Amino acid sequence: MSIIDFRACSMLNSIVRIRAIILGGVVNCDHSNFYFRVLKFEMNLDQSVSSIFKSKFAKEPLLVSAPGRINLIGEHTDYNEGFVMPAAVDKQLTFAVASNQTNRFNCFSVNSNTSVSFSTSELQAGGEWHHYLMGVIDGIQKKGLQVGGVDCVFGGDIPGGAGMSSSAALCCGFGFALNQIFKLNLTRLELAKIGQHAEHNFAGVMCGIMDQYASLFGKQDAALLLDCRSLEHEYIPFDFPEIEILLIDTKVKHSLASTAYNDRRAACEEGVRLLQRSRPEIKSLRDIGLSELEFIRHLVHEDIFIKCRFIINEIARTQRAAALLKANDLRGFGKLMFETHRGLSQEYEVSCAESDLLVSIASQFSEDVLGARMMGGGFGGCTINLVKKDAIEKYSQKVREKYVGTFKKEPDFYSTKLMQGVHTLS
Ligand code: GLA
Q1: DSSP letter string over 201-231?
Q2: pLDDT tens-digit map of 89-116
Q3: In what order do the strands lie in the sheet with 62-71?
Q4: How far apart (Å, rounded) are the C-alpha atoms in residues 324 and 34?
Q5: HEC sequence for 142-202
Q6: Whose CA is nearest to atom 9 of ligand 1?
Q7: Side by side, which strands form the sheet with 412-416?
Q8: What is the pLDDT of residue 256?
Q9: pLDDT digits (tens, 9 = 90+) for 264-291
């Protein structure tokens, strides 16, 4: 563990008493190569980011908080126009932003202790944090809107590479701040699409809309049931005082995750393309049932068939899960999470040995762990576990023991609360 004393950093030497303890080493962010350290501040996060901004730019910033997200169920269904059930959580990025009356964007990432300055004529794709910001500016410009330059400082405690969508928080928080400052009148949905534009066109990940949507539309103590076709949602209360939503981080960062993600999407699109030969009205896997999928079985590679079948099942499972949650049947809900995991691991093939072990341990604690599964795009990151609060210690200890015994490394544990989406703090 290394300690940075910001008093020693020339760039920040006017700040007193802010010390950041780097908890993790350098870790990958969800979709990218941009590096992200997890910092724990002695001041609270918002105050720290604000102080750093004021010391660098000597003016009052707009403060914006942008949360990461979890996903209870509905995995890889968003880019198939299905249903997902994410929620924004109490791990966030805080932004301090102010217009600078120039055409330059002067941005500082507290977590990586790096600054970048660019103008709108220098926007380019890439995997570093500033490319995401560039993608957001590009997305705004593509809508025919103009933004001026800003000074910006951001930092936070969303663990990178853990599948909690730090990149969505980055895009949505920055877009939201620009929207406020330049009075662009963009809706939250438009901001979510701009965040997705940045991922697609600047980071090269053909993601769905779930992460950006959850970060922007999250609500305290509620999950979102999002229909990724109509892009409408309903909130489903998730308020079970005796249950903890525990994320267990495998600390696996798969370097090919983005490529494999794009491949899965391509497999689904190929399935749809073949179905359209006999049923041109089909737009996505949302439009068909299992029996129709059987029609194309002989036309496609078995692997594509299996991938499409998983998606069709997962869309239906998410709808069943929503009904169970509304009926407060968390045990029934949890069983579906285990089912989802089996499908993600054996059929969609986006899990890994580490996540599989964590879920199998969870299934042995069936009295105390109501549901568990790998979460997010896959190939590492976190599992999500619904655990009885009074069993957390016993369960975590067992997990740690078995995980360290098998993989010779410690998992991380994060308990999460469901929070409000992107919002201003000042
Ligand atoms: C990533 C993507 C999302 C979604 C999930 C899998 O988080 O960004 O759009 O596809 O994977 O459900």
Answers
A1: III-----SHHHHHHHH-BTTEEEEEETTTT
A2: 999 999 999 999 999 999 999 999 999 9
A3: 114-119, 104-109, 150-156, 86-99, 62-71, 423-424
A4: 39
A5: HCCCCCCCEEEEEEECCCCCCCCCHHHHHHHHHHHHHHHHCCCCCCHHHHHHHHHHHHHHH
A6: 208
A7: 369-374, 380-388, 243-253, 412-416
A8: 59
A9: 999 999 999 999 998 999 999 999 999 9
The CA 228 to ligand 1 mean position distance, Å, reads 12
Predicted local distance difference test score (pLDDT) of residue 145? 98
Helix or strand run (H / E) with residue 261: helix 257-278
Query: Candidates 73, 77, 211, 268: which one to mutate for ligand 1, based on the most atoms within 8 Å of Cβ?
Result: 211
Q: Which atom of ligand 1 is nearest to the CA of 163?
A: 7
Site residues for ligand 1, CB cut-off 6 Å: 75-76, 78-79, 165, 207-208, 210-211, 376-377
Q: Ligand 1 center to residue 199 CA distance, Å? A: 11
Instruction: Tell me the pLDDT band of 22, cut-offs 50, 70 and 90.
Output: very low
**Index of the ligand 1 atom closest to the CA of residue 84:** 12
CA of 377 to the centre of ligand 1 (A): 5
Positive or negative CA dihedral for 317, 320, 326, 329? negative
Q: Which of 207, 258, 285, 350 to mutate to test the pocket of ligand 1 (most atoms within 8 A of CB)?
A: 207
- Partner residues linked to 219 by β-bridges: 222
Report which secondary-structure segment, H or E, holds 293. helix 290-296
Q: Which of 155, 154, 152, 149 is nearest to 137 (CA)?
A: 149
Give one word for 8, left, alpha or beta, with left for phi > 0 and alpha for psi -120 to 50. Answer: alpha
Catalytic annotation, pick one of 211, 287, 303, 368: 211
Contacts 24+ apart (CB under 8 A), 179-187: 180/62, 180/64, 180/424, 181/62, 181/97, 181/98, 181/99, 181/150, 182/99, 182/145, 182/146, 182/147, 182/148, 184/140, 184/145, 184/147, 186/140, 186/143, 186/145
30 catalytically annotated: no
* Atom 8 of ligand 1, residue of closest alpha carbon: 207
Q: Are 15 and 6 in contact (CB under 8 A)?
A: yes
| pLDDT value at residue 296 | 82
Q: Tell how far the Cα of 143 is from the centroid of ligand 1, in angstroms.
A: 24
Residue nearest to atom 2 of ligand 1 (CA): 207
